[in-house]
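Margin note from the TA: students keep mixing up input and output lines. Inputs are the sequences; the output is the structure of the whole complex. Example:
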Amino acid sequence: MTDGEDPFGDLQLRGIAAASEVFDRLAAELGGTSAAAADAPPAAQAGSTPTADDTIGRQQLRAAAARTIDLFAGLLQQTLESYVELVQEIVQPPGAGPQDSAGAGSDLSLVGPPGGNAVATIWIHNATDRRAEDVVLRLTDLTDHACARIDASLARFLPARLRVDAGSSVSAMLSLAIPPRTEPGVYLGHVLAGSLPAAGLPVRLVVEGEGA
Amino acid sequence: MTPGTVAVEATLGRYRQIVDAAMDEVLSAGEPAAYLSELVRDYPSRGAKGIRPALVLAACQAHGGTVRDGLGPAVAIELLHNAFLIHDDIEDGSSKRRGRPTLHELHGSPLALNAGDALAIMALLPLRDWGVLGARVSRQVLDELLAMVRQTTEGQALELGWRRNNVVDLSPSDYLTLIAKKTCCYTTVAPLRMGALAGSCGTAALAALTNFGFYLGLAFQIRDDLLSLVGRDVEHGKDAYDDIREGKRTLMLLHLLEHASPEERAWLVAYLASPEAEREPRDVERVLQLMQRHGSIEFTQGYAAGIELAAMASFGAAFADVPDSVHLRFIRGLVPYMLTRRR
């Protein structure tokens, strides 16, 4: 090519023109995920014509500002997450064992008629850093306000023994046979998990009356 | 080999070491799985140039970021590229990839398909860690990856559909639309955009960068098509004349369809309609001769030359707002490198 010669032949020009049309369609589909102002050509952003150094400086400033904002946003998020974890630890001490399917801290609710069965699922969570082997679940006797008692031996857990890995949860089914002549009312007790430093999970059994 | 090529290859090698180590970490996580772990490691271990992750890392650093900022997106895009290759090879019935038998040739299509699925999902793992880029930029980068996957699969569907329905009335513009979606997005546009977002903390101007990546990707793909015809098997790492055998709608083929005599065109259309397995080597040879006779290869070379000029011309605007650096010079050097490569 000599000086002054058009570097674009007809074929090249056709290639560029066709590619340019396709690009316009593709660009519309891809869009720009950065701020619209940042996507505008530099010269269109202000009345005066900025130098290359101005343009570079503004972009570096934008990036630095974004970094700072993200840093503070990240710190705020971490602080809030730490606060949530702290509250959770206060509500549910480490190693606390049984939880019912309704979630941490809530009573395990059972409902059934005299002579029937009351069934519920409980979750045993091992929040320690050691595996808990051979965890045996027990139900204490349940009593009502008048000290009427439902014997703990009427409860069955399936499975009877559990192995709970560190930091994981295992479920078990509690089935309680309610004696036929049990007085209707609310009976309270606890599920205890042996071999885990467990806090007791409150159990609330509602024995339904006739017509319930 | 020119000094420029040596410098580009040296930088590519450095980036590749970093990306390979990070990919290995992703692919090694968890217990080894029978019939899977070995397969997902195969293509990534075959020594690719690593142009895509290098573009991510260089664009990131050029915009003021660190290698750490760009590494997650770089690894994600390279793993996804390898997943696409596994599925592409099955879809195209290819027998060789990077000079060795394709994964489905080695293990059968069902296992290869499964490995491709696994690799595509594993590609998202490096983007799960929002600790490096923060939630906002991580989300932007993930959006870029998802947009890229959409465009790429749309492009691939278009190509497969044209071949299945034997669509022959296509213009160069149709072809450019195809490769804009199928190749540009994930070879150049997405790596540049993801790297720029990661390096600039989400503030980079993307329009001009997209323009540059688009022209570069087009030129790269057209050169790749030409290599399939004029490059030798060992240099290209694929089967010789694969594209003709598969009936790929390349610029050369579209030019030939337009300029062939009525008899030649009728034969060519019948050839493209025939099952791929029934296409004889002599038929492939005849298509090549027709392309040579009608100037289809010269046409494509001329077309590509214009788009290459557009790519080089758009470089300045693409990086107008970042300072000169070794990373920027590497990207500039990558343009002629990608367009004159031998494999």
